[in-house]
Amino acid sequence: MTEKRYVSAGHREIPAEYELRSDGTAMLCRWPRRDRSEAAVVPEQVQGYPVTAVAPLAFAPYHLPAGRMAQLAQEPVISFSAFCMKHGREMEYETEDAGGPEEIMLPDSITEIGEYAFWCCGRLARIRIPGRVERLPAGVFGKCKNLREVILEEGIRTIGLRPEGTREAMPETGAFYNCSSMERLILPESVTYLGAETFNSSGIRILSVCDGEVEHAARQQQERWSVESAMSSERRVEHAARQQERSPVESAMSSGVSGISVWHHNVEVHPTAFHHTASLQWMEQCAADGTVRWRIGLPMEKETILRCDQRFGGLARLPELFFSEGPAEADRLAEKAFRLDFSGRMAAARLMYPHGLKEETERWYLEVLVTYADRAAYFMDADGETPLRKLAGLVCGSRFLTREQMIRLIHAAGEEQDYELAQQILWMQNKRFPEDTGFEELEL
Questions:
Q1: Which H/E stretch holds residue 49?
Q2: Nearby residues of 164 by Cβ (< 8 Å), 6 or more positions away
């Protein structure tokens, strides 16, 4: 049965429809959109029934019978717009539509969210998805153009649609389809699947993925080496000799840090999950507390890269490869298939978060950044600084930066008439290479 209740939203009382189900729980069926309050607060209980579900299209500007929505999943080509046109006579429209709330506050009792539940919520900017929700279905945030902050709690396993057999999913089935204001999203470690068209036409710029098991694996690896070293004095000597032959970065990798460069849980990615995501520039692995371990950069206009191209084909698959490979594969692609928009961005990403970075690769990245310092705006994410200053801050922190490279950076700063930056680099050069003044080669 359906029970109409009045629930608080801001300072006004608006009617929302709930279905009281035979299992003793309640499902939110419809939240009217005529109210322009800042937040829609979904109650934890209705008439003593815990609210555990949000129905398909619950916050959308129009509604279809539940039976019709279930029929959508059986269509050979899953197109929501075509389906709505086909069953338009059965559709109910909101008589007064103010665009929906700016924030939707769901109780922790929610375990189920239906397809297209928040479809076309044009004013929605913030929402938190409780961890008891294991699945985010097709089109759940489709066309939420003002959505900026989505908090996904640990427990969510699948995001988006998993088409079966020969069925084809259209862009509008993507969970974040056309969320043009959403610049960053953090996926909890519990996520194991990204479905068809997940980020199609979204504004996502940074995608962070948690992998909290990495620290545990690194500790286990370090403990194993400690036990092995204790077994034989000869092996301890051999291990020390090998460590001396390695660079400090490689030594760190072999003492447990390498664990942060691999994945310890699998994320299956549908081939179309990152279709039409031109805004996506950075993908990063982070700890549960949000600390970034490593990051990769993505090429611009990656939609134009042919997967069959022997040189650039790997770049087209980078979003999927990110979830199965460590950063070493992206390092290899940056050098093998050189493109300034990609290799420059990779250089910035890997010098900023250098976990697992080999010495020879770091030296190559340094040379890329110094050589193309005059085009830093093309691949650097400046974050409020000038691109050249951001670039100089990265490369000057490397112990492999040479005196000649510093001189070239001083020249680049002079060409941009950033004399303060040129003076700072000159001061660092004199401090790092006190035996040389550099005045013989410095063009004043």
A1: strand 49-54
A2: none
